[in-house]
Predict the 3D structure of the following.
Amino acid sequence: MNRAISGMSRNFDPGLDIRFDQDRFAFVYGEDVFGPAQPEIRKLDAIRRTLLDPECNGPENVYSIAMDVGRREHLPELKRRMLLYGVVAYSAGQLGDEPVRSQGHVHSVAPHCGWSTPELIEVWEGKAIVYLQKSVADDPGTCLAIEATPGEVVLIPPAWAHFIVNANPNETMVFGAFCDREYSFVYKSIRERGGLAWFPVCEREGHIGWQRNPKYAGSQLVLHHARTYPELSLDPSRSIYEQFATDPERMQWVSEPGKYAGLWDSFSL
């Protein structure tokens, strides 16, 4: 079965029969796929407090979120393992001088495991940049911007603040992600500082620059491309959903990060 998510030509197969309907800004599921009837639409007004220009113009519907999707046969196993798979589509366009992006958050501590859980993001369509910083305190610590294209993955370690950027304002960007089933987000410190430590800015055609947020202490931003994660036994030749489908234990660290407790403090992104 061709599991491509839209009518656009691309080579990456995410392993799920899901199509993004641009006109409805919503997802259409194949017969073997479950998902919410209506996605959660993140509006521009909901994220203004964390943007470089809170009064900017941009698309009203910034991104569409369908949490808890998958093949029907896998739902009991996903629930048993406290895993959740979601898919998100970002609008084309800009938010003032910034590319379309999310507002930024930290994952709260999941009650079942006692960790701020990680998230594994896989780009399906377009080009993404995952911005991460180690802390939301005055000193943000390590700051990274990781570019990824279809089929590439980026790991967000436990307790890191992050947002995701549509790195090409001319097209929609879509990604899938594994996260914890008891996920929730912490925004308070980020909103108090008007965003995270760096803002992405659209410069010349096809290039994203970065502007520092003066409400944090000075920091250096490291830019690099997505890598593979052999230390987590991920297979770069297959989608992350297919890896779960054939070996569910392979993704168990997402909801049980304590399995790699010795890895996270020195984890190399």
Observations:
- DSSP finds four helices and 22 strands in the chain.
- Residues 231 and 262 are 12 Å apart (CA to CA).
- The helical segments are 44-47, 75-80, 188-192, 240-246.
